[in-house]
Specification:
heterodimer; B: 825 residues; 47 helices; 69% helix
């Protein structure tokens, strides 16, 4: 099962209300009649963390290795100045596409 | 279309021209251009002067075959094939394709020559020009040299280069736009103009940039620039970047403003691929730690330690030592994950976690301790090997309630475990505790109804059921229980001749029954009450009403018979009053059979005894109805019902029919043999025993646990069951008593009787002699072999046998002596 917090888009510190709100929002985005598989995943995620007791249980026993995407995405927020590609880089890109040469 | 079967070459040469012509046409229409080329080449060779269209056909075959090769990116080969065409028919067909293939295979000089010579006839000059222009911009010397100094392409190239230079050198937006204006709308660089405009727009208006690249066709040479714009404008650019080729990714990262460390992270992330291993993930976190939120990274790193314990040292150096509880929890999860999966070891680690929390007073710690203990119960259930008597489960659950008394399911589970273990007192105690803790929970109250009923405290049971109905008026189960409680009380009163009170109870039951769920049972009891009071007319009226409500004569008879027996009356006495006729002549259909099965299930829940006697009179109608069944599911349901009843004769009959529908299904074989042997393993014939063994093997192989369990349970009836399972264990639980074949059983029984007859000293000598003469066995050490044989000849049980064995003796089952589950403390 994917990380239920990620799936519902809530922080690990979220409380019951925030989790329920996020769950209902996700269900609106993926209603069961239109997207049954996604809905099932959302439902399972909600069941796994909906109460304080559930969240404690999840933290104690879950064994899924973490999804690094969230971690990576948060680390990839632009921090520096934008850089335009150089002429040489554009030429190289064109050459690669048109001739397969690097 | 089906491809014509290729003919051997020798035969092609032998074919007459007319036939070759037909074959060539067929191959062309089947798009088999490769073989068509061979045919038309042969035709041209045979009659080169002919004015027929063979040369044209050959040219078509070459062109189409070249297209096929180009589609497979074999541009060089495609170009070579195309070169045959002008020689054949004197004119170049679709030279733009040829030039395109030459360019794509890197033959730029040749392409430019072909471009110059076919310039007048090019049909899609625009696309080709755009390609040539892009190559010129990319700096391909052959292309650049071939463009005449005063050709329009040269002027346009200069404008494109100026615009690109202005953009790349970071000139202001307006300045770049001025340069872009120099590229006309008809220029082969119009897509470049659009792409550069989008890249500029990306800096201030990503959505606007996306709109601009929408106008660039997918075949454009500037598609890579388009992809950069799309990735830069994506809602989740980090993930969009991953989808790009490495060179594009770096450029797009720059466009977004990612720094060198972020670009390295992106590169590392891309390298991880779709399904990275745990070590790779851990290393990724460590290598890019400076960029992550430290707490997030710590949590991710710790989660990875379960699968990658080797990372602990690095983890500790980066995030500090794990708190004692977390270190212990990690050990427990690692033990659980270990391949050898030693349950005792895992449970030991979890228990250590509980011990660490034991003296904590904060609510979360206490709740965690309770959750761990309940989790240990789950693990014990999963690892149940048949050794445990349930005491560990009960102990864990009881402990957990001390930490967290607010868990309904734990009370109910605990109560049920005590019930299964036959600890009635404890069973009732825990249900009572649950009621105290959850007085308004229908599930708890229903459990309380059950315990009260089991203790024959019908009034109490009715009270609980009434409470459930107050809380949940549509609870069918509670309603049924309440009706049954009133009925049971009414029967008790009828048996002690308290008819007026019994009538009141029946009235109460009647008030509870819903109009759309009447079964006739209350009316039948009213009739029996009236008949007992010699009110014949009234009794007959109620009985007829009960029969009507029962739904069918068969079900009515069953209900009448069961209710009579519960009152210790003979149902035959009421046959005439019921106007049902001879039960043996009743007719029954599939629906009756299925309803009967459902009714029997309900009776079993009420713990009604002697259901088999009820079926005696119905054998014939039931046999007729069973014979007409064709559905495997229906037959399974009926067999199960008759197995539970149990009615051996009908069970065998139904299983015979089921085996006609589904031959050799293990469960049906079992039902047949079980019925035939009347549930007694000793009565199983040798031939059936072999069939049962084969059925067991098939069930095990097919993971048909239901059949395997039923057969195992039946076979383990044998008093001479061997105490260990078959070699390899299979999927059967351990320990698995292995029965002996009937013949061997009989021989053992004879020896046992002989030994019993002997005086003790002589018996011991004789026994020693028998044990000394045992043949060597590869699977059992001699000590075990002797002990087993002794146990089987003199009686005893497996626990005693194990206790008598020397301490270090290896046993032929996993875990050895005192292995998993045995004698756990």
């Amino acid at each position: 099962m994917p990380n239920p917090f990620d799936l519902l888009g809530v922080a690990e510190t979220a409380d019951d209300d925030a989790i329920k709100k996020a769950y209902l929002q996700r269900v609106r985005e993926h209603p069961p009649e239109r997207d049954p598989d996604r809905f099932q995943a959302i439902r399972a995620a909600y069941e796994a963390i909906k109460t304080h007791r559930d969240r404690l249980r999840y933290r104690l026993f879950h064994q899924e290795t973490p999804n690094l995407a969230e971690l990576a995405v948060s680390a990839l927020r632009p921090t520096g100045a934008r850089r335009r590609p150089s002429e040489a880089q554009v030429r190289q890109l064109l050459n690669q596409r048109l001739t397969g040469l690097k | 279309m089906r491809k014509p079967i290729p003919q051997p070459r020798a035969r092609l040469d032998d074919l007459p021209t007319r036939e070759l012509i037909a074959r060539g046409a067929a191959l062309l229409s089947a798009q088999d251009y490769k073989d068509a080329i061979d045919v038309y080449k042969l035709l041209v060779k045979r009659e080169p002067q002919t004015e027929a269209g063979w040369r044209d056909s050959l040219a078509i075959a070459y062109l189409e075959r070249a297209r096929q090769l180009a589609q497979k990116a074999m541009h060089r080969e495609a170009a070579v094939l195309w070169e045959n065409i002008p020689m054949l028919c004197g004119q170049a067909r679709q030279p733009e394709l040829y030039i395109d293939w030459l360019l794509r295979s890197g033959q730029h000089a040749k392409a430019m020559r072909a471009y110059a010579s076919h310039a007048a006839t090019l049909s899609t000059a625009g696309e080709l020009e755009a390609l040539l222009a892009a190559l010129a911009l990319a700096g391909q010397k052959d292309v650049l040299q071939a463009i005449p100094p005063n050709a329009p392409l040269r002027t346009q190239l200069t404008a494109a280069q100026d615009a690109l230079r202005a953009y790349s050198q970071g000139e202001a937006e307006d300045a770049v736009r001025e340069r872009l204006k120099a590229i006309s709308i008809r220029s082969p660089y119009r897509d470049l103009r659009q792409a550069l405009a989008a890249l500029l727009k990306l800096e201030t208006d990503p959505t606007g940039a996306l709109a601009l690249v929408e106008r660039i066709p997918p075949t454009s040479p500037y598609q890579d620039l388009v992809e950069l714009v799309r990735a830069g404008a994506a809602g989740d650019p980090a993930r969009a970047l991953l989808a790009l080729a490495p060179a594009q990714r770096e450029l797009a990262g720059g466009l977004l403003g990612l720094d060198a460390r972020q670009l390295k992270l992106l590169k590392d992330w891309a390298r991880l691929g779709d399904a990275p291993g745990d070590k790779a993930k851990f290393d990724f976190i460590v290598a890019n730690l400076a960029l992550f939120d430290l707490e997030q990274a710590r949590r991710a790193g710790m989660a990875l330690l379960v699968a990658y314990p080797q990372g602990l040292k690095t983890y500790t150096s980066l995030f500090g030592p794990l708190p004692p509880f977390e270190a212990q929890r990690l050990k427990a999860l690692q033990a659980e994950r270990a391949e050898d999966d030693d349950l005792d070891n895992t449970l030991g680690h979890w228990q250590a976690c509980v011990n660490l929390l034991r003296h904590e007073t904060d609510p979360d710690s206490r709740l965690m301790a309770a959750l761990i203990l309940r989790y240990m119960v789950e693990l014990l259930h999963k690892g149940d090997d048949g050794w445990d008597d349930g005491s560990r489960l009960r102990d864990c659950l009881e402990q957990s309630l001390r930490f967290d008394p607010n868990d309904r399911d734990t009370y109910l589970q605990l109560a049920l475990l005590h019930k299964d273990a036959g600890n009635d007192k404890e069973y009732h105690h825990w249900v009572e505790q649950a009621v105290k803790q959850f007085p308004n929970d229908p599930l708890v109250l229903l459990a309380a109804v059950k315990t009260a009923t089991a203790r024959k405290a019908h009034k109490k049971a009715a009270g609980f059921a009434a409470r459930v109905l107050e809380l949940d008026p549509i609870n069918t189960k509670a309603r049924t229980v309440l009706i049954n409680a009133h009925l049971a009380h009414a029967r008790k009163l009828m048996r002690s001749d308290k008819y007026a009170l019994a009538e009141k109870e029946l009235d109460s039951a009647g008030q509870l029954e819903r109009d759309n769920a009447r079964t006739g049972i209350i009316e039948i009891n009213r009739s029996l009450l009236a008949l007992q009071q010699r009110q014949r007319n009234l009794g007959q009226r109620w009985l007829r009403e009960g029969v009507r409500l029962a739904g069918s004569p068969l079900l009515a008879w069953v209900r009448l018979a069961v209710e009579s027996l519960r009152l210790k009356l003979d149902p035959a006495d009421f046959r005439r009053d019921a106007e049902l006729g001879d039960p043996r002549k009743l007719s029954a259909n599939r629906a009756d059979l299925l309803a009967l099965a459902q009714l029997f299930n309900a009776y079993r829940e009420e713990e009604v005894k002697n259901l088999d006697t009820v079926l005696e009179d119905l054998e014939k109608p039931l046999q007729r109805a069973i014979k007409a069944l064709t559905s495997e599911d229906d037959l399974l349901l009926i067999c199960e019902c008759l197995h539970q009843a149990p009615h051996y004769g009908l069970l065998e009959y139904a299983a015979n029919r089921a085996l006609e529908v589904q031959p050799e299904r293990p469960l049906f074989v079992y039902y047949q043999i079980y019925g035939r042997a009347e549930g007694d393993l000793d009565q199983v014939k040798d031939r059936d025993y072999d069939r049962l063994e084969r059925a067991m093997e098939r069930a095990t192989a097919a993971k048909d646990h239901r059949a395997a369990t039923a057969i195992t349970r039946f076979l383990s009836q044998s008093p001479f069951s061997l105490p260990f399972g078959p070699k390899g264990g299979g999927s059967m639980p351990m320990p698995m008593p292995m029965p002996m074949p009937p013949k061997m059983r009989r021989e053992m029984e004879e020896i046992r009787k002989e030994l019993e007859r002997l005086p003790p000293p002589l018996r011991d000598r004789m026994l020693d002699q028998i044990l000394d003469e045992l043949p060597p066995d590869d699977e059992f050490p001699p000590e075990i072999q002797r002990a087993i044989m002794k146990m089987m000849l003199l009686g005893g049980n497996i626990e005693d046998l194990l206790d008598e064995l020397p301490e270090n003796l290896p046993l032929p089952f996993p875990g050895g002596r005192g292995g998993r589950g045995k004698r756990r403390s």
